[in-house]
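TA notes, week 10

Several of you asked for a full example with nothing omitted. So below is the full record: structure tokens for the whole chain, then the designed sequence directly under it. When grading your own attempts, check the secondary structure regions first.
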């Protein structure tokens, strides 16, 4: 697919896609006319990159952990230094705190909406996490 289609499918600007390519996060083939051609699997890859960037990870760390995000997973870090491991642990812990904060805020908004609607519980979308159980109606 060309860069415009990848941009549309991921909601990512063409400029950012070029930047991801410069950073080695995605790759493209070049058509005879010089246009970039991306494998469709990069739709998911770009979404993963955006999520990791939104979580605060720098591109240099994202580049190193991207192989872990592929399926089937092929984890091989010949250069995993103690510093890199410590950095990843800090980032993981920071993300966990952020998820917990977002969950508390989401639940507070849901409670507010329920109260405003006169006790009628809001319709809740399915949780994306397999570990999340169904919400109970108290």
């Amino acid at each position: 697919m060309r860069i415009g289609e990848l941009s549309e499918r991921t909601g990512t600007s063409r400029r950012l896609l070029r930047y991801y390519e410069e950073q080695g996060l995605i790759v493209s083939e070049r058509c005879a006319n010089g246009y970039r051609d991306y494998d469709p699997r990069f739709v998911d890859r770009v979404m993963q990159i955006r999520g990791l960037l939104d979580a605060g990870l720098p591109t240099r760390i994202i580049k190193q952990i991207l192989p872990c995000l592929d399926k089937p997973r092929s984890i091989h870090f010949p250069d995993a230094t103690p510093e890199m491991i410590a950095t990843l642990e800090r980032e993981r812990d920071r993300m966990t705190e952020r998820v917990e904060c977002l969950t508390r805020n989401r639940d507070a908004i849901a409670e507010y909406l329920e109260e405003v609607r006169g006790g009628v519980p809001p319709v809740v979308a399915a949780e994306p996490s397999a570990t999340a159980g169904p919400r109970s109606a108290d």
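The radius of gyration is 20 Å. Use that as a sanity check on your answer.
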